[in-house]
Amino acid sequence: MGLKSKIESRRSERQIENWYRLAQQHTRQSRLPSCPGRALQNVLQLKPTEARAMQLLGEVDRQEQAI
């Protein structure tokens, strides 16, 4: 069980980093703020207490409101 838990944890961490990369790509390509927002929501589904995702999502929300 411990090994399975470690594998799942590493897999989740890799997926979270992939979602962050996707959010950064969308941001650099000047897409609508909701695009990186969707990627960040996926991060929070995997890890609801991820502070970095919550912070970036707050920035995305502010950008959407400014538009």
Quick summary of this structure?
The chain has 67 residues and is mainly α.
Shape: elongated
Which class do the helix and strand fractions yield?
Answer: mainly alpha
Tally of individual domains: 1
Query: What is the CA-CA span between the terminal residues?
Result: 48 Å
Low-confidence stretches: none
Number of helices: 3
Strand content: under 5%
**Largest β-sheet summary:** none
The averaged pLDDT comes out at 85
State the order of secondary-structure elements, H for helix, E for strand. Answer: HHH
User: What is the tally of beta strands?
Assistant: 0
The portion of residues assigned to helices is over 70%
CA radius of gyration = 13 Å
Describe the structure.
The protein has one domain (2-66). The model has no long low-confidence stretch (mean pLDDT 85). Helix 2 (34-46) packs antiparallel against helix 3. It has 3 helices and no strands. The relative contact order is 0.14. With 67 residues, the protein is mainly alpha-helical.
Name a few traits of the molecule.
mainly alpha, 3 helices, 67 residues
